[in-house]
Amino acid sequence: xxxxxxxxxxxxxxxxxxxxxxxxxxxxxxxxxxxxxxxxxxxxxxxxxxxxxxxxxxxxxxxxxxxxxxxxxxxxxxxxxxxxxxxxxxxxxxxxxxxxxxxxxxxxxxxxxxxxxxxxxxxxxxxxxxxxxxxxxxxxxxxxxxxxxxxxxxxxxxxxxxxxxxxxxxxxxxxxxxxxxxxxxxxxxxxxxxxxxxxxxxxxxxxxxxxxxxxxxxxxxxxxxxxxxxxxxxxxxxxxxxxxxxxxxxxxxxxxxxxxxxxxxxxxxxxxxxxxxxxxxxxxxxxxxxxxxxxxxxxxxxxxxxxxxxxxxxxxxxxxxxxxxxxxxxxxxxxxxxxxxxxxxxxxxxxxxxxxxxxxxxxxxxxxxxxxxxxxxxxxxxxxxxxxxxxxxxxxxxxxxxxxxxxxxxxxxxxxxxxxxxxxxxxxxxxxxxxxxxxxxxxxxxxxxxxxxxxxxxxxxxxxxxxxxxxxxxx
Length: 475
What we know:
The protein is mainly α. The protein is built from 21 helices and 2 strands. Helix 4 packs antiparallel against helix 12 (280-300), helix 6 runs antiparallel to helix 19 (419-433) and helix 13 crosses helix 16 (351-374).
């Protein structure tokens, strides 16, 4: 019997301990680079929708960085042992809410977004408190379907990044695809043939190579660095907070759905990095922490928080779960938030570089979902739950929200923009509606198979094949 490998306290594969700087820094920066576009882009989109410019625009981007850092710290090191999951995850401003935020902002303005976010944060806290009795509605089959759909829904984002970013003047150009494929090639080669830190930091090294190539091709704009100030502190209540019932209801639904996504991300993190599912306490603390940071964000002009699936994907790829790696990533984001000129350096990374590196991450997320789904007996019932959920979720969003034109606006905003939302709700409903499989039939089939095997061996001419009673009972 083999002896389990003993990991040192400072190993990057252990949650506790301080790894050497040679591994800590590149692995932490890898998470920063993977998250940075997702951190700042929602703020830019909302600013464009609400007509926010100048210093207010800079402030919202700055607050996004700070809140992401604080949300990550809260997840790593829970307060009172209840607010935060205690797991190696990156949490912060999320793309998941953008469709609803733009719908609310275009109609009511930023103040209503912040008011609805405050209410949504309270809903998330309540969901987290009662997650233990609610968790029975999210068995591995449902959670795996959610993770699988998350991976599928991220593919278009990665491809748009590889092509240069939607709305870019050179979207789809050969230069964008060249840089994206060079980045992807470096990541692929190092991840499959590299060793040590080269393999663990494959995404970072790929992004560095892609970034250098983009500089030589004239694709990096450094003007934003010189224009940004050196230091700036965000103050609360810079923006008004207003409440609208329909906006609050829409945001509450989004927070419930994204709490389910958080369950999926935390499950993917522990399954991919720790070979287990999260405990009820970890899930509860993670969702409560998400709600608390959203409430704080609404006071400072920030946007809703959620776990970052792309960073979860990194964990499933390299299995690095040391908290100090994630704490270093949070520290870099915090510094970037207080020093906008440093943030300007991070924002110069072309989107084609991000896309080339993260598409393999999104593929890993999808496969993690499949792994959870196939961990269950894949019966006709389970096949129906997964198949119909993914078909409806992906189908509606692929066709576009126009297919829901006959429904109220909030239905289109919630269900027509995210395949994860619809797939999650359908998976939960089908899992509750469809009767459980007849375990007795499964057992009878297994017994019949064993019996046939025993009878076949008894009929053999070789007397040494006669099974003992003990062997029969073991089968």
